[in-house]
Amino acid sequence: MKKIFAMILACLMLFTLQTAALGENNSRIPLAGGWSRAESPALTPEIREIAETAMQDIAGAEYTPVAYIGSQVVAGTNYCLLFKYVTTDSDPISSYALVTIYKDLEGNADVLDIFDCEAENGSPDLLGGWKPADDPTVTDAARTALEKALKDTDAGALSPVALLATQLVSGTNYALLCEVTSSALSPEGSYMIVHVYEDLSGNAEITESYAFLPSNG
What we know:
single chain, 6-stranded antiparallel sheet, alpha+beta, 41% strand, 3 helices
């Protein structure tokens, strides 16, 4: 388990170096500096409407909002949301993206940034039996599994934000959106999707982790 977590920390450090090379404006998911974290990741009708308005002209993929991450008051409001997406090309890819949306004072909504990752999005038609969460609120069971997986490590390095999917095997797999809270490892406000496996005896470990990087699209 320690070896797996060390690999995750190495991934975080690589993520930091890669994104820093892309320039200050696109170097990280911008949830520091005046951003307020959402009290709940659940999507309200207002947030869904903002998401649909902003994403309607984005070509190349179909986007579905999954969780509300935070907001920032400017001359209008910036919103950060997690989306599932499926590309519309001949070899479709199903994954997740963190999207920053700006809504102006007149109600117009536009996309500012898209950060993609390579995690499976839990769609029921994917192999492996992942079941999307009906509610993105992190359950006690998922939170406890992550805490146990981080027990002998820097448990403060990852904080669960949203439950994305579960998978019943000989035990349970959880797919979680996590905030990286250790500034020594990655810029403040960066996020990862983490897969946690808990066996039938209650032992847990992190099996996969996926960083978000700015979209090339």
